[in-house]
């Protein structure tokens, strides 16, 4: 199975560069499943139903969110309505939406997409390991599904790495998001799971994590936190990963970092 994952979309620049390139990526890499992170797509915080529908219409198969999944109130009913959008799995029960989705290809193959939040330097959430284990107990690789993709939306690289090694050999890929800075450690772990600490973002890289630099500089220099973060609107860059799995085992044959 050939999987492509676009990192966190940040603002209009990120939306435009993703929408403009999804069809090209699908054709060039012969993609079976296109996954896009829309965590910061709506002016830098959360997503709206309109944005989600546009990205799905332009070629995404599954969308994932992150810690800002409830920042836009209008997304709440959409999380229950749309079967191809995934919010974090390790949050208190009773929240709208679902922490995983199973996407079926036209040829009958199935991929399980899971997202969890990290706990180091993040708001309090449930254990990500327990959340993943509960889902995998009912959806094992090469039994119920043909591939498993896990997004860990977290601050700490150590936490992402630990989850990667914990799941090595049990899932197809563990991809880190949230910090918006692409890391150079894309590789296949010893037991066959593709891994990267952070995919990076889709947005204007002439910025601070996709936001105009003034407010972050004020926070750095004067601890002045009243400035509102505003997405940078220069030309967007897309960072993503391409992962190919072995249909016999469901494990990774290759992971490649992609920059457009």
Strand content: 25-35%
Q: What's the order of the H and E elements?
A: EEHEHEHEEEHEHEEEEHEE
| Count of individual beta strands | 14
Question: What is the mean predicted local confidence, pLDDT?
Answer: 96
Quickly count the helices.
6
Instruction: Give the terminus-to-terminus CA distance.
Output: 22 Å
Overall 3D shape: globular
Q: Low-confidence segments, ≥5 residues, pLDDT <50?
A: none
Structural class: alpha/beta
Could you explain the architecture of this structure?
Strands 1, 2, 3, 4, 5, 12, 13 and 14 form an eight-stranded mixed sheet that branches. The mean pLDDT is 96. This protein has 260 residues and is an alpha/beta fold. It is built from six helices and 14 strands.
Give a quick precis of the structure.
This protein is of the alpha/beta class. About 25% of the residues lie in helices and about 25% in strands.
Q: Helix and strand layout, with pairings?
A:
Blueprint: E1 2-6, E2 8-9, H1 11-29, E3 33-37, H2 49-57, E4 62-64, H3 75-81, E5 85-86, E6 100-104, E7 110-117, H4 128-138, E8 147-153, H5 157-167, E9 173-177, E10 187-188, E11 194-196, E12 201-203, H6 214-222, E13 237-245, E14 252-259
Parallel strand pairs: 1-3, 2-12, 3-4, 4-5, 7-8, 8-9, 9-11
Antiparallel strand pairs: 1-13, 6-7, 10-11, 12-13, 13-14
């Amino acid at each position: 199975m050939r999987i492509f994952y676009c990192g966190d979309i940040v603002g209009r620049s990120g939306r435009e560069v993703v929408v403009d390139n999804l069809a090209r990526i699908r054709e060039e890499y012969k993609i079976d499943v296109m996954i896009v992170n829309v965590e910061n797509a709506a002016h830098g915080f959360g997503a709206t139903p309109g944005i989600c529908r546009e990205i799905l219409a332009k070629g995404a198969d599954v969308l994932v969110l992150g810690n800002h999944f409830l920042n836009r109130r209008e997304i709440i009913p959409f999380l229950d309505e749309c079967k191809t959008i995934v919010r974090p799995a390790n949050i208190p029960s009773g929240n709208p939406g679902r922490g995983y989705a199973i996407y079926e290809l036209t040829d009958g193959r199935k991929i399980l997409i899971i997202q969890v939040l990290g706990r180091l330097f993040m708001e309090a959430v449930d254990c990500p390991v327990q959340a993943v284990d509960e889902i995998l107990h009912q959806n094992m690789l090469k039994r119920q599904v043909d591939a498993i993709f896990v997004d860990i939306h977290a601050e700490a690289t150590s936490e992402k790495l630990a989850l990667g090694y914990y799941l090595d050999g049990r899932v197809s890929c563990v991809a880190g998001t949230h910090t918006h800075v692409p890391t150079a450690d894309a590789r296949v772990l010893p037991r066959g799971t593709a891994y990267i600490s952070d995919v990076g973002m889709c947005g204007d890289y002439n910025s601070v994590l996709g936001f105009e630099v003034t407010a972050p500089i004020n926070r750095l220099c004067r601890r002045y936190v009243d400035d509102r973060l505003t997405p940078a609107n220069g030309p967007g860059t897309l960072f993503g990963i391409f992962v190919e799995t072995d249909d016999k085992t469901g494990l990774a044959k290759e992971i490649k970092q992609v920059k457009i």
